[in-house]
């Protein structure tokens, strides 16, 4: 293979030079006395999908939720350290949580569309944030979001049907459209495909690939093959610590840490 | 090294290594017996060696099949993946080595009938070197011992030197005894085969290094200087 | 011999000795199965019996009430010819159009006129056949159509209570005879008693109406709903969504649960002490009644509300929070609509209980004899259960059927209230 074609092949796989969107430094999370996250520092950047992997209870979902302050809803949760979005500390008192959550959207493990119509599901966010001037503009946002989520063709004729009447995979894409509708900068996905069948999973993965670059995407997953397929950077968590963070292709073919290797080759536990 | 949580995965890896070990053992034995058959001009032994090479080919097919199944069904990662890929390539290499041994055995009927060629007597030593290289590098594979693999790499120099000296000796012999050119030519090929076996052993060493380390061995300097006459 | 090795997915466990499966066909197993079936059958029958028993009680109640009460909706009337011009009443149509028609009518001596007309039509003593308050009907007729003052008119005036009872075949022999005579002469009819539904309480059972109590109940329920529902729902929201979980909120929860079980008469005492004695609100008014019942209903709504809000899955809250809804938006746009069916059910239960409460309202004085329906929230009034209680105490024969009729009205009110609430609940359930 000539040098040229080798380079082309690598470029397709190779992670692009990162533009950091969110930075975490020395983050620790406590639930009362129990420490769930220990001193984690990591960057999330615009052009690379970041995957968090690790065994159950390792803290990856907890850490994900610190990125949009969803842990605030839990009474005795305390977050130390610094997390910045475009340089602003998101835990500063003057940061508006509501606005933060519009900028950093979240998609959950079990699809949870509102028990409203498909249109209303997507339109709710823009409406409460005042992002649309009138009905026409709102219609435009709804259509654009559903298109970006790859759902428009399937539901354009039945926007007034209930969101909960869709199949599991469609519901999850509806949730993604709902998150996209408020024009976020970061999208956090907590095991988005774990409740879906393989075809729906494949569609979600393809969707993530299409969204890459426009939004900074972080995905928590139990499925290592999915992390390998979908991400360009992978972080391995274990017992609340960040064990290894690196380029996905390298981490899965030649991990640096023994614990990482044990986990991904199935020698864990 | 800790075992896989799914025990059957370990069983598969063990079976893969077993096949490689069996192939390696058969190839080694084929080399040694071919040299014995050569020096003793034992035609029956030679034809047995030729027939048994089929078994090595079958084992190579078995290794390929098993490796593909492991990749499909176990989705190996990191060092498991590198080991399976290395096993695939090593099997192909050992199959070539087996072919070289068969090739040597095929030439047995054509050498030493009429004349005694002195160079013949050093070939067993050369074969010993190459065979030991193969043996040690396969041990290194089984043990994932990359340092032993690097060490085997160095020994190829000796085999190459051996070949170069045999080459000059035979050429001189041929020039002095034109009647023996036919047989001597065959001996040349035998020597060449042995030298190739040494080279292939270094290929295996590189794969062992890659499987263990995840990086490629630094480009070794091949002793490609052609002997001058 | 080429044995291509296969990848083994399931390794046979080391101790794969042949396994003897359980024998499900032995006699003891069969016995167990039979016993289990028998137990299930028994339980099903018990359940069915319980349901049937409850239904039977309900049917018994309804049938008894209907049987006794339907007659309360009818009234016997006697045909009286009234020659207005001959009686020369001091009334003219023009005068009645003026402002003080009531005063004129009151002073017009309509009672004597009724007696005269009755004697003319029915003979001497004929006025005894009419209800004492029959003149009120004449007054109504004149008020409705002043032009009859200029001609002879036929009025159907309510019969006296004994005649009314006799018409329903339950009277004493003399009244029966009198009724028979009237009937033969074609002068009597028994028809729908519209005054029952239009007028308030009266002394003569033939003239009593339920409207006063009905309006009183309506106004009281309105006050109760207006106070208990918002306060109850907002309290439930606060306790579930905003309040921290500590000893104080636990104490509040226990207190509310206990409040819901407090006997209603205690709330009556509370109302008496605070609303009447301390705040000096008007006695016997729907306002006070509503306040007292609101105190009683609120805990029920809070408990039902809390349970309904608790049962909204947290995934909906997470989803709403995740796209940047504020706390209030999450509650009012997402949690409350989903919790509304449960809250409405709790409200129905609470309001139904409040509708039927007698004791606390007796304590705050809603037991007086109210002859005219309440005009507003601060006028003296009575409520349906109290009215029923009062009528059931009365001596007159005719009050028996009126009491039953009033019970039927109360049940109808209850059904109407429930129907509205259920309709609302279904509508909200569909929409979301």
Topology overview:
The complex is a heterotrimer of chains A (269), B (229) and C (432).
Chain A: H1 3-13, E1 20-31, E2 34-45, E3 50-53, H2 60-66, E4 77-85, E5 88-89, H3 97-103, E6 104-107, H4 118-129, H5 135-148, H6 152-155, H7 168-181, E7 186-190, H8 198-211, E8 216-220, H9 224-230, E9 233-238, E10 241-247, H10 248-253, H11 258-264
Parallel strand pairs in A: 3-8, 3-9, 6-7, 7-8
Antiparallel strand pairs in A: 1-2, 1-4, 4-5, 9-10
Chain B: H1 7-40, H2 43-74, H3 78-107, H4 123-143, H5 146-176, H6 181-213
Helix pairs in contact in B: 1-2, 1-3, 1-4, 2-3, 3-6, 4-5, 4-6, 5-6
Chain C: H1 27-69, E1 74-83, H2 84-87, H3 93-97, H4 101-106, H5 110-122, H6 134-144, E2 152-158, H7 161-167, H8 173-184, E3 188-192, H9 194-198, H10 211-242, H11 247-259, H12 264-278, H13 286-310, H14 314-322, H15 327-355, H16 359-363, H17 384-393, H18 398-431
Antiparallel strand pairs in C: 1-2, 1-3
Helix pairs in contact in C: 1-18, 5-6, 7-8, 10-13, 10-15, 10-17, 12-13, 13-15, 14-15, 15-18, 17-18
Kindly summarize this structure in a few lines.
The complex is a heterotrimer of chains A (269), B (229) and C (432). Helices cover 79% and strands 0% of the residues of chain B.
Any overview of this molecule?
The complex is a heterotrimer of chains A (269), B (229) and C (432). With 269 residues, chain A is an alpha/beta fold. Chain A has helices spanning 3-13, 60-66, 97-103, 118-129, 135-148, 152-155, 168-181, 198-211, 224-230, 248-253, 258-264; strands at 20-31, 34-45, 50-53, 77-85, 88-89, 104-107, 186-190, 216-220, 233-238, 241-247. Chain A has a six-stranded mixed beta sheet with strand order 6-7-8-3-9-10, with helices on both faces. In chain A, helix 4 packs parallel to helix 7 (168-181), helix 5 (135-148) packs across helix 7 and helix 7 (168-181) runs parallel beside helix 8 (198-211). Chain A starts with a helix and ends in a 5-residue tail after the last helix. The model of chain A has no long low-confidence stretch (mean pLDDT 90). Chain B is mainly alpha-helical and 229 residues long. Chain B contains six helices and no strands. Chain B has helices at residues 7-40, 43-74, 78-107, 123-143, 146-176, 181-213. The mean pLDDT of chain B is 90. Chain C has a three-stranded antiparallel beta sheet. The A-C interface holds A 68, 70, 73, 75, 98-102, 105-108, 110, 112-116, 124-125, 128-129, 175, 178-179, 181-182 and C 244-245, 313, 315-326, 329, 333-334, 338, 432.
